[in-house]
Automatic annotation (TrEMBL), chain A:
Belongs to the ABC transporter superfamily. Residues 4-234 form the ABC transporter domain. CDD domains: ABC_TM1139_LivF_branched. One of its GO terms (molecular function) is ATP hydrolysis activity. Gene3D superfamilies: P-loop containing nucleotide triphosphate hydrolases. InterPro entries: AAA+_ATPase, ABC_transporter-like_ATP-bd, BCAA_Transport_ATP-bd_LivF, P-loop_NTPase. GO terms for biological process: L-amino acid transport. This is ABC transporter ATP-binding protein. SUPFAM superfamilies: P-loop containing nucleoside triphosphate hydrolases. The keyword ATP-binding applies. SMART domains: AAA.
Automatic annotation (TrEMBL), chain B:
The keyword Glycosyltransferase does not apply. The chain crosses the membrane at residues 20-42, 49-71, 77-99, 111-132, 169-186, 215-234, 240-258, 265-285, 305-325. Pfam families: BPD_transp_2. It is found in: Cell inner membrane. Keywords: Amino-acid transport, Cell inner membrane, Cell membrane, Membrane, Transmembrane, Transmembrane helix, Transport. This is Branched-chain amino acid ABC transporter permease. GO terms for molecular function: L-isoleucine transmembrane transporter activity; L-leucine transmembrane transporter activity; L-phenylalanine transmembrane transporter activity; L-valine transmembrane transporter activity. It comes from Natronospirillum operosum. It is a multi-pass membrane protein. Belongs to the binding-protein-dependent transport system permease family. LivHM subfamily. GO terms for cellular component: plasma membrane. It comes from the Bacteria. GO terms for biological process: D-alanine transmembrane transport; L-alanine transport; L-isoleucine import across plasma membrane.
Length: 234, 338
């Protein structure tokens, strides 16, 4: 049984279904990547898994427990953390306060976790007393990921973490995400930069029009001629 | 000596009263700005919430006076203020429970909230007039002056005196203490930070597990405490009169918007700018100017820009100019969305 098993999900806004019979699974300590063309329903699938959209069909199991009908804020204590694509930091608060807010639900000592985040993203330690809104795009993404890690999640969900950052920063971010996965955290990531994302993916899901088109290891998907032709630009 | 005399006169009639007034406005504007930051609507019922708090304080003051309790030379109202604060908090939490929560759960637009708050404003205004009546109430006791104009003249040998009323000093000191406590709360405590986070980015605060109902409750409690304190200080400094609080909405909103909506520091800045402008524009400078030059150099006019009857026009002009020129306010705040 996978750590996260979202199976046969169907949902949408209003009448039309954006995703249909879509299944996504993630294992502990692995990176799962969802790729696909614009409008394929990648972000919608993420929202559905986090409970920000109600499923009309299908179910979400976390560690074998059915959480299909749990509201988003109750999924945080269950070990899920999400980095949204936009507006993912508290811009009027310092970097350190952003991290503190990430750990809001924790009653224990958060200092060790904060130290780990600063070890992972050393630049955040240098800028810990600066407002998050004053940082560069890449640094903001680091704050956003750091904030999510502060809950000590078992599943970290990232919605296009590299949107709008330079290629160098992107490589760096991917390296850090692999590091996070090595600590045993399951990672589910939606990415526009499909090729680079699949390179670090243990498992890849190619969505087209809200449905699973290909599901395989990242390596196999990169080797698949049809995937390359249709989604990776040859 | 004449320059000192002119300054003494200016301080006596402009600087000191305007500072006290500014402190009262600041406490009011802080409440409006907090509610806007957290619940994202302009709370028109805020003036009546202030009035209700002051009314409860006055009733408690009378009770204490009747029992012969006194903290002379300080006014008894300071002792009664916690009662007023509790009453205002009760009203605020009840109105949230029975009015605003409904709209919050329905994700109503800010304008719907504002309209509901106008209804609540009339309801509270009526209730207040039922309980204490529409007439003005004096409830200040204790020592009147910290230093009277006469004592000041004796002390300094100047021809112009500076009278410092005790209520002005109390207003300023209490306002300072309350503001310091508020900023400490917002900057240093977990609940305060959660409030800022919620105001900053509601969705992300939910993703962090911050409980919105708790944030809203704390916001109302702080706002009500500030409102009751502001109105009690205003009543001590001048007089308590129910209808004044409808008029006070204008300078309070002007201060909030001028400072940047949702920005506590801005609210305080805005309040003092509005207070100084209002007092200076409506003050007749003839005598002050007269002291600065030869005996016969002053013109016949009063050197008053605007009659005191029009003092609310000052806030109105500030409001309109800010909205036209810099809608985000001095410290970049939120812009009211339609």
């Amino acid at each position: 049984m996978s750590y996260l098993a979202a199976t046969h999900m169907t949902c949408g806004y209003g009448g039309a279904n954006i995703i249909e019979d879509c299944s996504i699974t993630v294992e502990r300590g692995e990176v799962a990547v969802v790729v696909g063309p614009n409008g394929a329903g990648k972000s919608t699938a993420m929202k559905a898994i986090f409970g920000m959209l109600n499923l009309t069909e299908g179910s979400v199991l976390l560690d074998g427990q059915d959480i299909t009908h749990l509201p988003p804020q109750d999924r945080v204590p269950k070990g899920m953390a999400m980095v949204p694509q936009n507006r993912n930091v508290f811009v009027l608060m310092t970097v350190q306060e952003n991290l503190e807010m990430g750990a809001f639900i924790r009653e224990d000592n958060i200092a060790p976790t904060m130290e780990q985040v600063y070890e992972l993203f050393p630049v955040l330690y240098e800028k810990r007393y600066q407002l998050a809104g004053e940082l560069s795009g890449g640094q903001r993404q680091q704050v956003a990921v750091g904030r999510a890690l502060m809950t000590q999640p078992k599943l970290l969900m990232l919605d296009e973490p590299t949107a709008g950052v330079s290629p160098i920063v992107m490589d760096d971010l991917f390296d850090r995400i692999i590091e996070v996965a090595r600590t045993g955290i399951a990672i589910l990531m939606v990415e526009q930069n499909a090729r680079q994302a699949l390179e670090i993916a243990d498992q890849g899901f190619v969505l087209v029009q809200g449905q699973n088109r290909f599901t395989d290891t990242g390596e196999a998907l990169l080797a698949n001629a049809e995937v390359r032709r249709s989604f990776l630009g040859g | 000596m004449d320059i000192l005399n002119a300054f003494a006169m200016f301080a006596n009639f402009v600087l000191i009263p305007a500072t006290a007034y500014g402190a009262q406005l600041a406490l009011g504007a802080l409440g409006v700005t907090l509610i806007f930051g957290i619940l994202r609507f302009a709370n028109f019922a805020h003036g009546e919430l202030m009035s209700f708090g002051a009314m409860a304080t006055i009733l408690a003051t009378w009770g204490l006076q009747g029992m012969g309790v006194s903290i002379h030379p300080l006014p008894t109202a300071l002792l009664a203020l916690p009662v007023g604060i509790l009453a205002a908090i009760t009203v605020a939490l009840l109105s949230d429970r029975f009015v605003y929560r409904f709209y919050r759960h329905n994700r109503a637009s800010p304008i719907t909230f504002a309209m509901a708050s106008i209804g609540l404003m009339f309801l509270l205004a009526g209730l207040i007039r039922f309980i204490i009546g529409p007439q003005h109430q004096h409830f200040a006791d204790g020592e009147r002056f910290l230093i009277s104009a006469f004592e000041f003249r004796e002390l300094t040998g100047l021809s112009q005196g500076i009278a410092i009323r005790q209520t002005q000093v109390i207003t300023f000191v209490v306002a300072l203490v309350v503001m310091a406590a508020l900023f400490w709360f917002l900057q240093k405590t977990k609940s305060g930070k959660a409030m800022r986070a919620y105001s900053d980015n509601e969705d992300l605060s939910l993703l962090s597990g911050i409980n919105p109902d708790r944030v809203v409750m704390i916001a109302w409690m702080i706002t009500a405490a500030l409102a009751a304190t502001a109105a009690t200080l205003y009543g001590l400094d001048k007089v308590y009169q129910p209808f004044i609080f409808l008029q006070m909405l204008l300078p309070i909103f002007a201060a909030t918007i001028l400072g940047g909506i949702g920005q506590p520091v801005g609210a305080i800045l805005g309040a003092f700018v509005v207070a100084y402008s209002e007092v200076m524009v409506t003050y007749a400078f003839r005598q002050v100017v007269g002291l600065l030059g030869p005996a016969d150099w002053v013109p016949d006019s009063m050197l008053q820009l605007m009659s005191t009857n029009y003092k609310f026009a000052v806030s109105f002009i500030i409001l309109v100019v800010v909205l036209l020129v810099r809608p985000t306010g001095i410290i970049r705040g939120k812009v009211i969305e339609r």
